[in-house]
Structure formats: C-alpha cells, structure tokens
Amino acid sequence: MKKFILSLFASMLLTTALWAQTQTGNPVDAKVKFKQETIDFGKTKLNKPVSVDFEFTNTTKEPVIIETARASCGCTTPTWTKEPVLPGKKGKITASYSANSMGAQNKTVWVRLKGIDQDKELHLTGTVE
C-alpha cells in the first residue's frame, strides 16, 4: 500500500511540474508582439530628455486596448495608443526619460492590456553623461 501511495504522489508531482512548465509566459505576449522589449537610447547629456517608442502589433483576431502604462520612477513618462488597436495593426508606447541623473540608467515601463491582470515589462536603458 505504501508503494502505491508513493507512486501516486510521485505521479501527481511530475504531472504538476510538467503542467507548470507549459503555463509559463506572459499572457500579454499572446495578444501583442513587441518589436523590442528593451531599447537602449545610447548616450545623452545630463538634463537632455530622450524618448523611445516601443512598437507592437496586435496578433489576435480582436481589438486590443492598452489599459495603462506606468513607469518605475517619476523621471520616466509613458504615453500610449489610446484607441483600440485592430487585428494585425500596430500601436506604440512612448517612454520619455528626463535624463536628470548621471550614469547608467535602466528604467521599466509596465504595460497592462484591458482584460488581462498581468503587466508586461518593457525596459529603457542608456547612459547619461
């Protein structure tokens, strides 16, 4: 009986592990495809703002709406396509960084699509001299 229970437990553990591996990934990726998820703006001067565009394509058969985009700090401001992005069409999220701090920079913008309770991370990197 002990062998049976141990075998049953091992089978359940293996099944759970395999199922978990197939469930990885961000649900946003199932709806939109970003051209780049990390953009390096290169080098800029102190207090010389930079902006980058994170372009994406709607890969579904329904319109996609960006519910919100928020930044990791007050020095980065995201703006985004407000109207629904139709199937196969492109949209964008523009991240504007104030460049008010010297050195290497790594800023994050979190994007949330309507109907999905998980954010997609986008990264803006570069150096302020």
Automatic annotation (TrEMBL):
InterPro entries the record matches: DUF1573 (IPR011467), Ig-like_fold (IPR013783)
Concerning Pfam families, the annotation shows:
DUF1573
Say yes or no: keyword Signal present: yes
Q: Which UniProt keywords apply?
A: Signal
Signal sequence: where?
A: 1-20
Q: What is this protein called?
A: DUF1573 domain-containing protein
The scientific name of the source species is Chitinophaga agri
Its lineage reads: Bacteria, Pseudomonadati, Bacteroidota, Chitinophagia, Chitinophagales
